[in-house]
From TrEMBL:
Residue ranges of domain FERM in the record: 1-70
Species this chain originates from: Bracon brevicornis
PROSITE patterns found in the cross-reference section: FERM_3
GO BP: actomyosin structure organization
Highest taxon listed in the record's lineage: Eukaryota
InterPro entries: FERM/acyl-CoA-bd_prot_sf, FERM_2, FERM_central, FERM_domain
Name of the featured protein: FERM domain-containing protein
Amino acid sequence: ELGEYDPEIHVGNYMSEHKILLKQTEGIEEKAMELHQTQLKNFTAEQAEIHFLRLASQLDTYAVDPHPVK
């Protein structure tokens, strides 16, 4: 969605324009920007998606569909 980090395009708190979490805080946005600028550097869109899916599949709640109960 953001593409390759470009300091001319991605200025200020550019992550606040994107809703990535239900309870998104400024601290989370700062960490996301740090990762975008460092660890995800030179990723193609396909590589970024595969990386995301690998990380997500390791979560305890991966593929869990919760149903609220009263």
